[in-house]
What does this fold into?
Amino acid sequence: MSTEGPSPGCPRCGGQLAPLGAGRVCRSCRGAWLGEQRLEEMVRTMRDGLFADPLELVPRAADEAALACPACAAALEPATFAGQPIDRCPAGHGVWLDDGELTAALRAVVP
It folds into this structure.
């Protein structure tokens, strides 16, 4: 999903996703939507070479509902990034990080 143009709703709460830096942020729950490549670029910039493949898929808990991709409405897959739980679009449109997860992931890769 591009960060330009009209914004679809937040996959977590349905709130408005507003452009912010390289992605979009929900004005209600403060989660963030970023392209996978942009997230990986952020990490490489902060800590070159730490992760060969920083995204790792993890199983979803049986009672946990899948979020929908704001770009294509596909069920987001659970994954981890730098030890933080995230949700990613299987079609590669981007990743969803709940409030605080992006900061925690980036702190994990900064010396």
About this structure: The helical segments are 36-46, 101-109. The first strand starts at residue 17 and ends at 20.
